[in-house]
Specification:
The protein is α+β, with helices and mostly antiparallel strands and 261 residues long. 43% of the residues lie in helices and 15% in strands. The protein folds into two domains: 7-119, Sandwich (Immunoglobulin-like); 123-260, Tetratricopeptide repeat domain (Serine Threonine Protein Phosphatase 5, Tetratricopeptide repeat).
């Protein structure tokens, strides 16, 4: 089990890598299970954090095969919601994490304990985080326009900040599942900015591309969607984003051919 660093800033992802190697015979029923619930995260006082557990996957669980190697990556920040916060957040402090699996009939799986520190950033990053938190506060007060404005100010003033891409995602989520031309226009504009300016930092490419396609369709603007995706395919340095955009383009082309036939 490992972390990419021992120190993180508030709002940064904390990716925990877990690797299980079965050096014996058939092992426990750990395959296809979400491992978040077996990660124990403690604060400096020894209190266990309550992580947001993912839904059980529909595929059946099975035992570990002899010699099988499994590896998973869990974002501890994405799994934890601080009371009163709209988005995942680990407050400043020192934390420890370990992995523990216990199943009757098998030897327990126990990792070493890893400690890490979460602290507030300084300088420009601290100012960016302040704007992010202010946008979050405005959202909780149901002041959507003011919330958008704080996030937009962050992106304009601190475009290189680690929080800039997250601010654009929050503008998108402010208008997600809301009806009306204004909300659709904001979603399209924001998703395009996010994918073009921060191609490696979007946390849910599938959702962004799905909503982009559906919103263009609601606007009856398939040519606009095709032009947008063509630009992404040609210019993005992110191979995953390019692949996903190409899939949507192929689907659009297939539907167009079926209509002609």
């Amino acid at each position: 089990m490992s972390l990419p660093a021992s120190r993180f800033y508030v709002g940064q992802p904390v990716w925990l890598s877990i690797r299980v190697i079965n050096r014996g015979t058939v092992g426990p029923h750990i395959v296809n299970r979400p491992w978040t619930q077996y990660c124990f995260v403690l604060d400096c006082q020894g209190n266990r954090l309550s992580l947001d557990m993912p839904a059980e996957e529909s595929v059946p669980v099975s035992r570990v095969k002899p010699g099988e190697v499994m590896e998973k990556h869990i974002n501890l920040v994405r799994s934890y919601f601080l009371l009163g916060k709209r988005d995942p957040c680990l407050p400043p402090g020192r934390y420890s994490v370990y992995f523990h699996w216990n199943e009757v009939g098998y030897e327990s799986l126990n990792s070493d304990t890893i400690t890490f520190l979460v602290s507030n950033p300084k300088g420009r990053e601290y100012k960016a985080l302040t704007l992010l938190n202010e946008g979050d506060r405005m959202y909780r007060l149901k002041k959507l326009t003011e919330s958008d404005a704080r996030y937009e100010e962050l992106v304009q003033k601190y475009p290189e900040s680690m929080y800039a891409a997250g601010a654009l995602e929050l503008i998108f989520r402010n208008h997600l599942n809301r009806y009306g031309t204004r909300h659709r226009e904001i979603r399209i504009k924001t998703v395009r900015r996010l994918l073009e300016q921060y191609p490696y930092h979007a946390t849910n490419l599938g959702l962004l591309l799905y909503d982009l396609e559906q919103t263009y369709r609601m606007n009856n603007d398939i040519p606009g969607l095709k032009a947008c995706l063509d630009t992404l395919v040609q210019r993005t340095p992110n191979p995953e984003l390019k692949f996903m955009a190409e899939k949507v383009l192929h689907r659009i082309g297939d539907r167009a051919n079926q209509t002609v036939e």
